[in-house]
């Protein structure tokens, strides 16, 4: 099995970033420095601004004000197509092209980047990387399970060897077992490839397990920025504690059931 060469993910800096939709303050004055190679979880209730924040990094959404820098370079100084080749993007219901083979779906970013050769080798390497069998290359998306399709989504996002991965509820539509195992596998890919990853999730348990730093958003603002350990200590503030309380209560409930 061939292993992709190590990539070093970039550092990120968001400086006083806001995005308003008329009178809705989707993201308000967010300042955040993210170290190269970090795995960050963005959590918060529905509508707290997580997706908007993520999409400003790859310029799917433009900020109303503020600056975003990747390795010191302003994102708006980079052509959006070039920028998006450097940034992998995975989202829920990944949106594979239904009439294209899995191989072509994975290689689409290479095609768009004008790379004319080496697609088959890269697809083969990526299938290995996301632990899909090679013979899936010729299938169509509807011939794969939801979990397998999400793996294809991760492979597609990695095709152009980005250093930064933005993941918006990537495993949200999957059953809990598949979700857990894909999340675990992604975590080891992140480490092996030296990526910088920002993952949006509703699931605090997933955030605590995956990330080395968790950012809690509420009404577009950062309400907590802490390690899983700090969050579990209960010292980080009421917004974070409300989210941690859910997996805590579930664990307690299961433990009680186990005793009865
Ligand atoms: N294109 C848009 N036009 C108008 N308002 C928008 C637009 N996109 C987002 N918003 C609003 O901005 C706020 C933040 O939305 P966003 O999708 O970033 O939240 P979220 O935390 O990702 O939510 P969810 O967890 O439900 O996906 C919400 O009030 C939303 O209605």
How does this model look, in words?
By secondary structure, this protein is an alpha/beta fold. It has a domain at 12-96 and 166-259: P-loop containing nucleotide triphosphate hydrolases (Rossmann fold). Helices cover 39% and strands 23% of the residues. The protein has 9 helices and 10 strands. It has helices spanning 50-57, 80-86, 102-112, 119-129, 146-158, 176-193, 204-210, 228-232, 238-259; strands spanning 12-21, 24-34, 39-43, 65-70, 73-74, 87-91, 164-168, 196-200, 213-218, 221-226. The strands form 2 sheets. The chain has a 6-stranded mixed sheet, with helices on both faces. A 4-stranded antiparallel sheet has the order 2-1-4-5, with helices on one face. Helix 3 (102-112) crosses helix 4 (119-129), helix 3 packs parallel to helix 5 (146-158) and helix 4 packs across helix 5. The protein is globular. 40% of the residues are buried. The mean pLDDT is 89. Bound molecules: adenosine-5'-triphosphate. Adenosine-5'-triphosphate binds at residues 21, 24, 26, 44, 46-52.
Q: How do the strands and helices of this protein lay out in sequence?
A:
Blueprint: E1 12-21, E2 24-34, E3 39-43, H1 50-57, E4 65-70, E5 73-74, H2 80-86, E6 87-91, H3 102-112, H4 119-129, H5 146-158, E7 164-168, H6 176-193, E8 196-200, H7 204-210, E9 213-218, E10 221-226, H8 228-232, H9 238-259
Parallel strand pairs: 3-8, 3-9, 6-7, 7-8
Antiparallel strand pairs: 1-2, 1-4, 4-5, 9-10
Keywords: ATP-binding, Nucleotide-binding, Transport
Organism: Parasphingorhabdus marina DSM 22363
Protein name: Osmoprotectant transport system ATP-binding protein
């Amino acid at each position: 099995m061939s292993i992709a060469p190590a990539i070093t993910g970039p550092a990120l800096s968001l400086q006083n970033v806001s995005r308003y939709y008329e009178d809705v303050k989707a993201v308000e004055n967010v300042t955040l420095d993210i170290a190269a190679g970090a795995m960050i979880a963005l959590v918060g209730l529905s509508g707290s601004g997580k997706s908007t924040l993520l999409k400003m990094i790859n310029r799917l959404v433009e900020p109303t004000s503020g600056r975003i820098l990747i390795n010191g370079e302003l994102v708006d100084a980079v052509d959006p197509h070039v920028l998006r080749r450097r940034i992998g993007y995975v989202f829920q219901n990944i949106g594979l092209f239904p009439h294209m083979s899995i191989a072509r779906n994975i290689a689409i970013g290479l095609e768009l980047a004008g790379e004319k050769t080496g697609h088959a080798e890269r697809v083969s390497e990526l299938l290995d990387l996301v632990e899909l069998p090679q013979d899936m290359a010729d299938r169509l998306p509807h011939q794969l399970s939801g979990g397998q399709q999400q793996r294809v989504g991760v492979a597609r996002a990695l095709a152009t060897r980005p250093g930064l991965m933005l993941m918006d509820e990537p495993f949200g539509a999957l059953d809990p077992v598949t979700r857990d195992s894909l999340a675990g596998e992604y975590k080891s890919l992140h480490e092996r490839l030296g990526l910088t990853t920002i993952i949006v999730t509703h699931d605090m348990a997933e955030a605590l397990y995956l990330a080395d730093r968790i950012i809690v958003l509420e009404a577009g603002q950062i309400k907590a920025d802490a390690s899983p350990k700090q969050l579990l200590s209960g010292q980080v503030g009421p917004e974070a504690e409300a989210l941690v309380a859910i997996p805590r209560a579930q664990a307690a409930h299961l433990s009680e059931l186990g005793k009865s």
